[in-house]
Amino acid sequence: MVLFIYEGQEKKAPVPFGEKYESLRERQRLFHAALKENRERRRELMKENTAQAKAKAKKLARRISFGIKYTYAMGGRLRNEIVGMLTVYNFGRAVFLHVKRHIRFDPSDEKLYLNTYYPLGKHKGRYKVFLYIHGGGWMGGWPESREAFTTRIATAGYFVASVYYGEAPRYAHPRMIENIYKAIGWLRDHADELDIDMESIVVSGESAGAHLAAMAACISTNPEYAAKFNLDKRAKEQKFSATVLNCGVYDLEKVVESGFKRGGIYTQAYCGGTPVKETDEEFRKEISPIYWVNERFPPTFAISAENDKLALLTFDLIDKFMRLGVPYVHYHGEGRFAVHAFAITMALKISRDAMKQIRRFLSSLQKS
């Protein structure tokens, strides 16, 4: 199960993986070259600065503090989530489902909850589980604003649990992934009541949620990595049958270097307010799941987008899958609407096509 799928590939022959991978790396090299040139210009200007100019520079630096940047970025995230939830994020959601929202899975923290979606009517055997982890730069996002995606998965016969795991920096690393394991523990405790099969669970997410989904998959397959976290005892041995990763983040250092809008503040918030480059090497590796992927990583459906500055991270992940022999399907979207995390909305043709391919991938898991 090693495929490389382009949106619209029926109309034109897809570019080979290696050629596309190199073009994305070249795009990144050009970005860094321009960045380096700008930095050198600033250095030259600083050499000519007067004391007054230097004082102004220091004042400007103080203004660009984490608190200000965080407030600005958070405001943007909140606006995007609200507008998105009212428009494209939930456009085309499925409606004939059992839906239950705001189920608290941690008695000690009333902010944390999960939503569930599953088909109406009778079914054979227990429901297979699809655990969804929303994105939002680790600073925002809600399960309610991902229902175009999650309800479509539910109509494929899955019991979908969509988790709200907390926002950064309040729930900085490693609290988010540990909260997700608390949600898994709650699902395991209620498996009989919910009629779900916790031995057949797919973990998925978009953007920051794909980062956490990949982290969970690494925890489940790499004991050395699992030992770094204080995982819920009910869930620490949980295995996953597959992952579905939409425009994910697998190396946080590369996010900062990618030119992705507000990537620096998002990752800084995830690290509790400390810039990634100021953390030690061990911590930087701990927060980046690509370092912990091994040959036991679950079969994966990975999505990337041509107009996403983080696309190279998915290509890095696929390259590692290829070297390790991990089964995967890679869906690479092209065209003007192939933007970051495009697959969460069903308003676009490219997103609906990606959903068809995801459902085909899930169907192949059930047959195997």
State the CATH topology. Rossmann fold
Helix content: 40-55%
Radius of gyration: 21 Å
- Number of DSSP-assigned strands: 9
Q: How far is the N terminus from the C terminus?
A: 11 Å
Task: Sum up the overall morphology in one term.
Answer: globular
- Biggest sheet, in brief? 9 strands, mixed
- Indicate the structural class: alpha/beta
The tally of helices reads 13
| CATH level 1 class label | Alpha Beta
How many structural domains?
Answer: 1
Tell me which CATH architecture applies here.
3-Layer(aba) Sandwich
User: Strand content of the residues, in percent?
Assistant: 15-25%
CATH H-level superfamily: Alpha/Beta hydrolase fold, catalytic domain
Mean pLDDT: 86
**Neighbour order of strands in the largest sheet:** 1-9-8-7-6-4-5-3-2
Unreliable segments of 5+ consecutive residues: 6-11
Describe the structure.
The protein is α/β, with parallel strands linked by helices and about 375 residues long. The protein has one domain: Alpha/Beta hydrolase fold, catalytic domain (Rossmann fold, 3-Layer(aba) Sandwich). The protein contains 13 helices and 9 strands. The chain has helices at about 15-45, 50-65, 65-85, 145-155, 175-190, 190-195, 210-220, 225, 250-260, 265-270, 280-285, 310-325, 350-365, and strands at about 1-5, 95-105, 115-120, 125-135, 160-165, 195-205, 240-245, 300-305, 330-335. It has a 9-stranded mixed beta sheet with strand order 1-9-8-7-6-4-5-3-2, with helices on both faces. α1 packs across α12 and α3 (about 65-85) packs across α10 (about 265-270). The radius of gyration is 21 Å and the shape is globular. The chain starts with a strand and ends with a helix.
